[in-house]
Recover the amino acids of this structure.
């Protein structure tokens, strides 16, 4: 069985990838499970560039002749009122070790008093794949919504508790795993990548 190595240590992302590619003939491995360790500097200017930096870094560490495909994602939250910040800096917003409770509270504070219709935002995910022959592909998915006026829900991670979805009347942290996978930015980007896999 071919190996699909996901350049992440995030358990939530691994679960999402495994669910979406469950019917494909791949053994899906995290970097740790594949015995690969790297933490490349993500200095790209776009989500796609950062995802490729991660995928290439892991691919370069694989043994000669490996038939593994490496995929990596870069994702983040764009808040229109904040000029699309935190954007590609979503994970590093306010520092790497700052909890998302603090980051979410800071975004809510910045939008204090801003009317609902101006609180538009989206989650963006770019997925990059590096194939054994050196071919590279990227796909992108987005999930449109609004910034809520308070933190709610505990089913998600990151900025999910402040990301409001009108059609569901709740934050993305209040969705079930199945609902979220059906509409999430990562789910959309992964489903687009499936055709290359």
């Amino acid at each position: 069985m071919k190996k699909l190595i996901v350049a992440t240590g995030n358990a939530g992302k691994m679960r999402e990838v495994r669910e979406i590619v469950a019917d494909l003939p791949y053994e899906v491995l995290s970097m740790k499970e594949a015995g690969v360790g790297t933490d490349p500097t993500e200095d790209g200017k776009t989500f796609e560039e950062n995802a490729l930096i991660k995928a290439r870094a892991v691919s370069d560490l694989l043994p000669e002749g490996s038939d593994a495909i490496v995929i990596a994602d870069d994702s983040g939250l764009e808040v229109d009122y904040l000029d699309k910040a935190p954007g590609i800096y979503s994970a590093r917003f306010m520092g790497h070790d700052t909890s998302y409770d603090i980051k979410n509270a800071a975004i809510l504070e910045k939008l204090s008093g801003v009317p609902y219709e101006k609180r538009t935002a989206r989650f963006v995910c770019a997925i990059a794949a590096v194939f054994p022959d050196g071919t590279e592909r990227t796909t992108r998915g987005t999930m449109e919504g609004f910034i809520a006026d308070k933190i709610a829900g505990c089913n998600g991670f990151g900025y999910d508790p402040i990301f409001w979805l009108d059609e569901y009347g709740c934050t993305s942290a209040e969705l079930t795993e199945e609902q979220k996978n059906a509409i999430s930015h990562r789910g959309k980007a992964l489903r687009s990548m499936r055709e290359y896999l």
The longest strand covers residues 136-147. Strands lie at 2-6, 26-30, 69-79, 85-86, 120-130, 136-147, 163-165, 170-171. Residues 2-188 form a domain with the Maf protein fold (CATH 3.90.950.10). The chain has one domain: 2-188.
